[in-house]
Amino acid sequence: MPLRCRGTGVTQPDVNGGGPVNSGPGHAVNGGPAGTRAVVLGASVAGLLAARVLADHVDEVIIVEGDDVTGSAHGRHRGGAAQGRHLHALMERGRQILEELFPGLTAELAAGGVPAAETLVGTRWYFDGARVAPASTGLTSVLASRPVLEAALRARTLARPGARLLPGVRAVGLAPAGTTRVAGVRIRPLAGDAPARVLAADLVVDATGRGTRGPEWLEELGLARPRADSVDVDLAYASRTYRRRPGELGGDFGVIISTLPGRRGGGAVAQEGDRWIVTLAGMLGDHPPVDPDGYDRFAASLPAGDIHRLIQGAQPLDDPVRYRFRTSRWLRYDRLRPGADGFLAIGDALCAFNPLYAQGMTVAAQQALALRDCLQSAATGVSGAAGLAGAARLDGLARRYFAAAAGPTSRAWSIATDSDLRYREIPGRRGLRTRVINAYVPRVQAATRADPVLARALLRVVNLVEPSSTLLAPAVLARTVRFGLRRIRTLPPNNENG
Ligand SMILES: Cc1cc2nc3c(=O)[nH]c(=O)nc-3n(C[C@H](O)[C@H](O)[C@H](O)COP(=O)(O)OP(=O)(O)OC[C@H]3O[C@@H](n4cnc5c(N)ncnc54)[C@H](O)[C@@H]3O)c2cc1C
């Protein structure tokens, strides 16, 4: 159910000649004195969060989006964010940040019919085929479909003074100033055959997602491109929606079944509009089919039967659709020397995670906070130094931002890639840290089936609310060891890994 649009903030630009988007250097804004302008490429989750943060620090933020996301397209599935047809879980840390940037968002979503539940109280999780003990986690699962969440973020971002959207316009390259600075973006409307024009900017933010051409665009200007860290996972999702009736899934709002130790997993989650979104997932080429019979058979093969039982009796509302994800990739702008000034990347354009860990939106939100903090310290001055004014605040921002964003990105990247490296078939370096984690964390996971304290601790790490190091706290270690000893005493040896 699309949420109400609070403000429009949509510009139908004269991209073909003159008009606000075509202003040259100094780019006077709204007829006033020349102001600072940021241009954000991509109006999906990361781009909207970047724009929200920037709107507090520059005079004008223009969001360039290839898709039409206005009018009847608002709150609907769209080609530029095709992953939106699949289950999107918002981790608690992400929800907290969205709430900080847009106070009242959780309540607004609930008022629009989005279900919410306490994680592990109203939702079930399975790790390594065993159900995690129900426990109070203090974590809220807000179960909005991806288009509805994005529509709410877009409406609130465009309600900020100075924020504007150019829908149906593609970025096709960058514009240079001198040899180390990006000074704008080349854009072209999707409709018609108008040539590309330059939209001048003091700052360009690449939020074009995993298909980003940012590195190529930098190279075209003679600037260095970042190298990529990557892990090949060859994952595919197949998703289908079903009518949701009261009492299904024992009255719970969702179930998540992890792929490990096999290759197959899935999730079924309640959504607004009395629907279930059911996503089946297969790693390393073991992909779920999209024909209805094959889809049902794949669901029946999961390590827990909850999803298959649910879809047996439920009425499908559409056909299954597929999304293939081959590689997790982190573009290491933080290591680029010298980097380009005036150019940032955020969200999947910076780091695209294996979606099984549901981290992408939350890490984008953490990166947006890193951007906000860099902008704030430039505005107020650090260590008693006077703050900077206008465009001077943006000098050196890219280097500071990439360093700050590397912190949360790296923490989430380690959780996801260490876990993926449990599969022997996935190539990658398994240093001592990874080997220790992959020996220890499955033991914590195994113990969560019987220990609500461990269940709470683990889910808070998974939700990026607590750092992974909390799993090494003496109390957690002791409970994990105690569970392991109890298993050895109570299970016959040949069941130890069963
Ligand atoms: C199958 C799948 C499932 C996922 N599940 C989860 C989940 O459960 N939880 C979670 O947190 N994350 C999940 N993610 C990740 C999540 O979708 C992203 O991390 C999140 O949406 C942030 O993405 P983004 O805004 O950086 O990019 P995207 O959402 O990919 O958006 C990029 C935007 O840029 C626009 N664009 C692209 N090129 C241009 C151009 N040249 N000019 C103008 N506009 C352009 C596109 O139209 C689009 O609007 C999943 C991802 C996939 C693939």
Structural descriptors:
498 residues; alpha/beta; FAD/NAD(P)-binding domain; 8-stranded mixed sheet; 12 helices; globular; disordered N terminus; disordered C terminus; FAD-dependent oxidoreductase; FAD/NAD-bd_sf
How would you portray this structure in words?
- With 498 residues, the protein is α/β, with parallel strands linked by helices.
- It folds into 3 domains: 20-82 and 150-227 and 332-414, FAD/NAD(P)-binding domain (3-Layer(bba) Sandwich); 85-91 and 113-145 and 230-327, D-Amino Acid Oxidase, Chain A, domain 2, CATH 3.30.9; 432-495, no CATH class.
- The protein has helices at residues 45-54, 92-101, 105-111, 146-158, 214-220, 292-300, 306-313, 360-380, 397-420, 432-447, 452-462, 474-490, and strands at 37-41, 60-65, 116-118, 123-127, 130-131, 140-142, 163-167, 169-177, 181-189, 197-200, 203-206, 228-243, 254-257, 264-271, 275-282, 321-331, 343-345, 351-352.
- The strands form 4 sheets. It has an 8-stranded mixed sheet with strand order 5-4-13-14-15-12-16-18, sandwiched between helices. It has a 5-stranded parallel sheet with strand order 7-2-1-11-17. A 3-stranded antiparallel sheet has the order 8-9-10.
- A hairpin with a 3-residue loop joins β8 (169-177) and β9.
- α1 (45-54) runs parallel beside α8 and α10 crosses α12.
- The two termini are 43 Å apart.
- Mean pLDDT is 90; it is low at 1-7, 13-26, 28-33 and 492-498.
- It binds flavin-adenine dinucleotide.
- The site of flavin-adenine dinucleotide (FAD) has 37 residues, from α1, β2, β8, β16 and α8.
- Flavin-adenine dinucleotide binds next to α1, β2, β8, β16 and α8.
- Residues 1-30 are annotated as: Disordered.
- This is FAD-dependent oxidoreductase.
- InterPro entries: FAD/NAD-bd_sf.
